[in-house]
Amino acid sequence: MGVIRKILNWYAKLSPGRGKISPPYEHVVQIGDPTLRKGSEPVPVDTIKDSEVQTLIKMLEHVLHKYGSVGMSAPQIGVNKRIFVMRCTSKQISNVSPAIAKMRGMSVIPLTVFVNPKLKVIDYTKITHAEGCESVRSFSADVARYKKVEITGYNEDGEKIQQIYVDWPARIAQHEMDHLDGKLYTDIMDRKTLCCTSWEEVNLSKGRVAIPFVPT
């Protein structure tokens, strides 16, 4: 493994974007990065409007839009702070068939920022759907999540916020909360359902396909 890592690092040095950078990143870190396995620290409420926290929030929103995601947590851009953002647009819903959208219980979620969020399960019924993660790029697996949850915390202005989510929005919220506790969906997935979402392209291209770690 040491030899493989050295080779990979050598290739990375050839990248035109090579250079030392500090978080918050404009890219999403991948499984294996220690940041994803650390419990995140709460943000002092009286610092939410400080420039450092606001910069982190703006970067989360930027990366969320850049990747076309429905949720993004601070650990995913290299910062172990208890902050995440989530949204689900009508365009994102239209990208799947009406039947799948209905089965998942998808609904529009305005862009929402949660600082120091806390989760309370309201309906303990568990629903299983395929789930992916930008930090486990190009893979998905079936994951059981609670049907209905309540998220409380603070917004980007330091104001208290409370939201109740059902079905797909509840899944997004639980997924992001897991990130803040150093957990990934791979910890609770049905292992037999894990698959590469590009497996068909791999076959069609006879293996000559690259999985990008940033949007192309």
TrEMBL record:
It is an enzyme of class 3 (hydrolase). Its EC number is 3.5.1.88. GO terms for molecular function: metal ion binding; peptide deformylase activity. It catalyses: N-terminal N-formyl-L-methionyl-[peptide] + H2O = N-terminal L-methionyl-[peptide] + formate. GO terms for biological process: translation. Belongs to the polypeptide deformylase family. PANTHER family: PEPTIDE DEFORMYLASE (PTHR10458), PEPTIDE DEFORMYLASE, MITOCHONDRIAL (PTHR10458:SF2). This is Peptide deformylase. It comes from Parnassius apollo.
